[in-house]
Amino acid sequence: MADHSPGKKVFVTRVIPATGIDLLKNEGFEVSIWPHDRPIPPDELINEGKKANAVLSISTDGIDRNFLQACKHLDILSQFSAGYDNIDVAEATKLKIPLGYAPGAMSEATADIAFGLMISVSRKFFYMHKTIIDGKWSHFRPMAHLGFELRGKTLGIFGLGRIGLAMAKRCRGAYDMPVLYTNRKPNAEAEKTVQAKKVSFDELLKQSDIVSVHCALSDETRGIFNKAAFSKMKPSSVFINTSRGPVHNEEDLVDALRSGIIWGAGLDVTNPEPMKRDSPLLQMENVAVLPHIGSATLEARSEMSRMAATNIIEFYRGNKIPNCINPEVMS
Questions:
Q1: 107-122 and 125-133 helices, crossing angle to 10°
Q2: Is residue 2 part of a domain?
Q3: Of 271, 263, 266, 256, residue with least CA distance to 221
Q4: What is the pLDDT of residue 1?
Q5: DSSP annotation of 21
Q6: Mean pLDDT of 177-187
Q7: Are residues 114 and 98 in the same domain?
Q8: Which of 116, 181, 234, 285 gives 127 a disulfide partner, CB atoms 3.0 to 4.6 angstroms apart?
Q9: Mean pLDDT (whole number) for 53-82
């Protein structure tokens, strides 16, 4: 464990809310921040990492083997995110670099986005807004652009953790939606609070009217929502993804929507990211797309900043990292 002493250098890879920065400075850390409104290039990330004792990263930084080998001297790396698929965890663990992260900070904010996308798709909000801009709002047409109501529809949660449960509570409370879920382990809290029922992946696809994805990105989940998965969903169903874009195959999703295999989709994450402006998804009537803004509230981002900084502070104080990805390094 590293000693806590003034002058330890922390490099922050992007401008983040001052909450965490102020905490670090008040503890005597020397903080430097990448000042530009663009991602830090890999070579610059390595250069800055070499000058630091600790790095506070964001989820789009490439914390890969090259970076970790070049900066193996780092005492700790703490991430401004709940996800960490951008980090080579195995390599960091091998090099005995502890990794912190910020789980739970954005659960409510991201659940709001999933819930909002579900409503937006079911009533075609985004497309109908475009008709006004395009001058197509003319007269009342009783059978045009009809959506559907959500009350009593079945919600299927793929990956029932903090965010998935927050989404389930919204759907259960607002629309009395039965909740199914697919998870590695049973979620006793969800089964008690929203009467969630654990089912197989196939059953989730077949029975759900809304399939909402809240899993981590891993080898197991990468591309799991593909042609085969969409073909098992109801023709009237909606696919929602607020987790990570690579969880779904975007070409297969486009085909499923075009051919009527599923009814609609709401995405806060895309594959690739950023989405190209000529993506056919952006022109579809039953689709709503946002530019990965799940955690974009002042409250969530401030809490992410606080948690990421606190991991570093508590590490140097000699305690365990409050939220550690690879706790075996600490032992």
A1: 60
A2: no
A3: 271
A4: 46
A5: H
A6: 97
A7: no
A8: 285
A9: 97
- Whether 156 and 180 have beta carbons less than 8 Å apart is answered as yes
Look at residue 105 in the predicted model and tell me its pLDDT: 96
14 C-beta neighbours (distance < 10 Å), count: 18
- Could you tell me how many residues make up the chain? 331
pLDDT digits (tens, 9 = 90+) for 32-66: 999 999 999 999 999 999 999 999 999 999 999 99
**Residue ranges in 97-193 assigned as alpha helix (H):** 107-122, 125-133, 162-175, 188-193
The dihedral region occupied by 247, where left means phi > 0, alpha psi between -120 and 50, and beta the remainder, is: alpha
Q: What is the mean pLDDT of residues 96-106?
A: 97
Q: Provide the β-strand partners of residue 99.
A: 77
Does 4 fall in a domain?
no
Are 24 and 126 within one domain?
no
CA dist., res. 305 & res. 12, Å (int): 10
Q: Which residues are catalytic?
A: 244, 273, 292
Tell me whether residue 266 is in a domain: yes
Domain boundaries, position 142: 107-289
Verify that 263 and 124 share a domain, yes or no: yes
43 and 191 part of one domain? no
Given this model, what pLDDT does residue 319 score? 75
328: tokens are: 């075996």
CATH number of the structural domain spanning residue 192: 3.40.50.720
